[in-house]
Design a protein that fits this description.
This protein is an alpha+beta fold. The protein has six helices and four strands; from the N terminus they run αββαββαααα. One of its GO terms (molecular function) is endonuclease activity.
């Protein structure tokens, strides 16, 4: 994480509970003009709160020592942490205290552990398939306010295999 802060177990428990209730763990494929492939994989932890009650997000950011806060136009404030190594480190600390997102995190750990071995363009086809399978399983664990477009999901998975 950014600067190291010694957290107490109760801090990890509070942050994990906040993530379970008002947070999300995302895996995205982002367009990038500065890479040869034109795309990159991105892992994100996001905490959400009504902007009128955003103070806990600043506390969490301070405790973790990483992330950025933004206010959306719909009255919601977000705290985001990006990067598979940072996400992995935070989730490892929160994992014992998670209740509802534990299964999803287990699948994300599988994908992240493979990505930590070497750059994605150096992974074998088998390793890429393992990442895809882990991410499909993680998405199945995710609460979604609307249905995910299955064509978009298939397209995302093809992108991973092509990277």
């Amino acid at each position: 994480m950014g600067r190291q802060i010694k957290l107490k177990q109760i801090d990890f428990a509070y942050i994990a509970g906040f993530l379970d209730g008002d947070g999300s763990i995302m895996f995205q494929i982002k367009k990038r003009k500065d890479t040869l492939r034109g795309k990159r994989l991105m892992f994100t932890i996001c905490f959400y709160q009504d902007t009128r009650h955003e103070k806990p997000l600043f506390w969490i950011k301070n405790r973790l020592g990483i992330g950025y806060i933004s206010r959306r136009n719909d009255g919601i404030t977000e705290l985001r942490v990006n990067g598979h190594k940072q996400v992995q480190k935070i989730l490892q600390s929160l994992y014992p205290y998670l209740r509802f997102k534990k299964e999803q995190v287990r699948y994300l750990f599988r994908a992240i552990n493979i990505l930590n071995k070497r750059k994605i363009d150096k992974l074998t086809k088998k390793e890429k398939k393992e990442i895809v399978n882990a991410l499909i399983a993680a998405r199945k664990q995710t609460y979604q306010s609307g249905k995910k477009n299955p064509k978009k999901l298939k397209a995302d998975l093809k992108v991973i295999m092509a990277l």
